[in-house]
Amino acid sequence: MGILDLTSMGEPQVDVKREIIGQLERLQDEIPEYCYQCAKCTSGCEAHRLLELEPHRIIALLKRGLIDEMVNSDIIWTCMSCFKCWERCPQKIAPVEILFLLKNYAVALGKQIPGNYTAALQSVLSKGLIQDVKTISTRTGETKSRRDVGLPEITKPVDPVKFQALISKMAVEKI
Amino acid sequence: MTKKTLVFYPGCIMQTEQYSYEISLREILPVLDIKLVDVEGFSCCGEPLKSVNRMITLVLSARNIALAESRNLDIFTPCPICNLAFRECKNILDNDDKIKEKVNGFLAEEGLTYNGISKVIDLLELLYDIVGLDYIKKHVKKPLDLKAAVHYGCHAIRPSEIGRSDDSEEPRKIEDILEVLGVEAPWYPEKLDCCGGLLNMNLPETALTKTGEKLRSIQEQGFDLLVDICPWCHRQFDSKQKKSGETVAYSLNLPVVYLTQLMGLAFDIPWGKLGFNLNLSPVNTLVEGR
Ligand code: SF4
Ligand code: SF4
Fold it and tell me: What is the CA(A93)–ligand 2 centre distance, in A?
């Protein structure tokens, strides 16, 4: 199972794209009723100062239907998932969730998945875990495995084939 | 007497590299009469992949919960990120039979069924609400005379809509536990600032800047140490402290420990049994002479 099949949720991606865009368009219809553009979300945004993310502007762009512009921009990948925008919004709009949707849409459109997401995804799909078990270093520079420090074997999918079957079934049939 | 028996869901980061968290948990929880049951077959909770595909997150969470449910026990998720994924999954599946049925169709590939019978419990709920301060206090043999900065981590306290175990703006449970250990934990302005950990996935330099900036402010305010409960945050603050100091061009030397390690010290468990040799930040000052 290649990563593309899974990230695209099976060729030709049409269903996933349609589903996500449907959700985004529903939000686009609803949000103008609620968002004050008060920018409280942006005032507490963890990615604002260093990376110039402005969640209230994401909402404004969504209102105007500029979904493609956002999907093509790196800015959607600067969110740290701190959830402050959702928590503090007086209208309980969740810019962070809209950002998740936009990123999902970018992936479904076949855009480049940035950084380690690809490796993490591949690792989860092939082994069930986000990374391999590591031999780590002590403060004095000795290396230690889980066994060395008295920990039991890790827990991971017992039958990787069946585990992958589950994920691919989901990829093909969707939710 | 065992107070509660729980399935132990370690999540990826703890079991693949954050050993001091796992070691200290396995050491202190039996003292508090909490029994952990290890279960074979768990996978990633899915939360770190939510940016790629939210449905993978939902299905992976459901899969793990289903696996734990087969033991008829509640599930303990010490990692706040896994905990958030599981709670969100439960909120969705327990309120929508159609999605639940669909997800169960996938889980059938591995012979699993999600029922929604198990509760998902995080560290704060376990220590504060289930074990309780009085019971913790009973086991404190060597109160610690320290001044700590507390870092909850974003996922432990937000979003409250999904159901978190402490207040999103003024969380207090860690401070209350620390007080019982003899540790003073005053408020500081950067308390709720993010560690930047999830940015490691695509913008690791910025992640390190966030980490370094927070550590610098804490160090400048004269705290003896930083206490955390999230393996992603701890990886930033402790495992990557040196790198984050280089990134913000500041000489960092702030001891960073898991709450569970500190509890172990106060319970008079030898520090060698609490994973203190694995902290990469300068924790020597905390354990020397003990
Ligand atoms: S999303 Fe909420 S916080 Fe942000 S501008 Fe709109 S109303 Fe204000
Ligand atoms: S969740 Fe993302 S968009 Fe919202 S405040 Fe945090 S970093 Fe900003």
Answer: 12
- Asked if A152 reaches chain B (Cβ–Cβ under 8 Å), the answer is yes
Structural element, H or E, at residue B101: helix B97-107
Phi, psi dihedrals of residue B178, rounded to the nearest 5°: -60, -40
What is the identity of the amino acid at A65? Answer: G
**Whole-structure pTM value:** 0.95
Name the H helices within B17-53: 19-31
Same domain, A46 and A84: yes
Element (H, E) at A34: helix A14-34
Closest protein CA for atom 5 of ligand 2? A45
Residues A91, A128, single domain; the answer is no
Q: What is the dihedral of CA A50, B81, B233, A140, to 10 degrees?
A: -140
Q: A146 and A88 in one domain?
A: no
The whole-angstrom separation of Cα B119 and Cα B113 is: 15
In a domain? residue A141: yes
Q: What is d(CA B162, CA B85) in angstroms, rounded to the nearest whole number?
A: 9
pLDDT 10s digits, A60-95: 999 999 999 999 999 999 999 999 999 999 999 999
Backbone phi, psi, residue B4, to 5°: -155, 140
Enter the CATH code of domain B39-121: 1.20.1050.140
Kindly list the distances between the CA atom of residue B169 and the CA atoms of A87, A164, B157, B259, B261, in Å, as whole numbers in the listed order.
9, 40, 8, 20, 25
Domain B140-287 has CATH 3.40.50.11810: yes
The backbone torsions φ and ψ at residue B228, rounded to the nearest 5 degrees and listed phi first, read -135, 175
Q: How far is the CA of B58 from the centre of ligand 2 (A)?
A: 21
ipTM score for this prediction: 0.95
Q: Number of structural domains, chain A? A: 2
Domain that holds residue A28: 11-108
Q: Do B201 and A115 touch (CB under 8 A)?
A: yes
Partners of A134 on chain B (C-beta within 8 Å) are 16-17
DSSP H or E segment with residue B35: strand B34-38
A117-126: pLDDT as tens digits: 999 999 999 9
Query: Which residue in A108, A51, A67, A58 sits closest to A86, CA to CA?
Result: A58
Mutate to test the interface with A, among B24, B109, B162, B205 (most CBs of A within 10 A): B109
The two three-digit tokens of residue B81, written as one number: 């990120």
